[in-house]
Amino acid sequence: MSYIIKHSASSVLVLDKDLRYIYASQVDFDGCKPKPEDIIGKYHYDMNPGLPQKWRDVHQRCLKGEIITDDNDPFYRADGTIDWTKWECRPWYETDGSIGGIIIYTEIITDRKNAVESLEKSEERFRIMFEESPLGIGLFDFKSGKAEHINKKFKEIIGRDNEEVLDFDWQTITHPDDMVENLRLRELVLSGEITGFNMRKRYYKSDRKIIWINLTVTLLDSINESNPKEICMIEDMSKQIEREEKILYLSNVDSLTDVYNRSFFETEKIRLDVERQLPLSVIVFDIDGLKLINDTFGYSSGDKLLKAAGNIIKKCCRVEDIICRVGGDEFFILLPQTTELESGNICARIQCFAESHEVTFEDSCLKLSLSMGYSTKTLGNEDFSEIITNAENSMRRKKLLERKSVRSDLITLVKVTMIEKSHETAEHAERLVNLSRAIGKEINLSDNDMFMLELASSLHDIGKMCIDQQILEKPEKLTVQEWNEIKKHPETGYRIAQATSELMPISEYIL
Question: Which of 13, 32, 130, 249 has the fewest CB neighbours in a 10 Å radius?
Answer without folding.
Answer: 32
